[in-house]
Amino acid sequence: MTQIAPPTSPPTRQQTPEQVRAFFDAHRTVRQYQPYAMPAEHLDTILYAAQRAPTDATAQLYSFVRLTGETKAKVAELTTNAHIASAAESFVICLDTRRVRKLIEVAGYTPGESPAIDVHFGIGDAVLAGQNMLTAAEMLGYQGCWIGGVMNGLAEIVGLLKLPEMVLPFAALTIGRSAEETPHRPRLPRALVIHENTYQDGTPGELAAATAQMNPIAARPGKDGDWARLLNAYFGVGGSMEKREVALREVLKAQNLWAGE
Ligand SMILES: Cc1cc2nc3c(=O)[nH]c(=O)nc-3n(C[C@H](O)[C@H](O)[C@H](O)COP(=O)(O)O)c2cc1C
């Protein structure tokens, strides 16, 4: 029987710069979906793509919880993101540094303790796998939405999904066929986010110009965008991130992922 030799180098999937730009330009975060059930083959493909993500130390430090039925509705409520319920598929994307310890225990070794490292590489792995899944879904004609709103009901979600120690939700991720006209949202000027060799703060003038460039992302029908105001509501004194900080610290402790005193 003839045997086909394995490829000596990775197979290419080269596209033109124009094709690559066009693909990423077509990305939109979408929050309204058609009532369309994802065919099994598509679901299988996006889950396959998730698991093909590169991973720290070979360990695959993530678990996804697929939401259906009442649990899906409840997570939509707890996150205050109703589109979790209406999307064809919704997942809670979790850091999971528990399974790696079970694996080494089963092999007769003693698991170590490294909560800060667990959070660092676990979140990284979870995001890489989740974004692989979203990109695969976009290749299949879907759009989706990452949902940091899990922080709005973090402890309740951990309880509802029965997440054990060393498993922590990072965000939810919805995927569906778009039912909305979504604007192409701006990004910061490249010079502020890509540094050459050493980090540079933007000057006040550059930051003000960047804010003007970003203002449309905060626009609402009939109302001009004010991006600084939006950022302040998240990251300013008394903003939602300060509230989330308190809840996250509690859950990090409960999940045995707290590295502080
Ligand atoms: C980690 C993360 C958390 C997010 N959380 C939410 C959320 O809770 N609710 C929501 O509607 N959109 C959420 N988004 C979507 C962002 O608002 C969106 O990506 C951003 O406005 C840029 O828009 P674009 O993806 O269409 O370019 C989140 C995105 C990320 C990456």
From TrEMBL:
Which is a Pfam family this sequence falls into?
Nitroreductase
Q: Nitroreductase domain: which residues?
A: 27-176
Bilayer-crossing residues are none
Q: Give UniProt keywords alphabetically.
A: Flavoprotein, FMN, NADP, Oxidoreductase
Name the Gene3D superfamilies for this protein: NADH Oxidase (3.40.109.10)
Q: Return the SUPFAM superfamilies for the record.
A: FMN-dependent nitroreductase-like
Q: Which domain of life is it from?
A: Bacteria
Q: Which family does it belong to?
A: Belongs to the flavin oxidoreductase frp family.
Which protein are we looking at? Answer: Nitroreductase family protein
Q: Which organism is it from?
A: Deinococcus rubellus
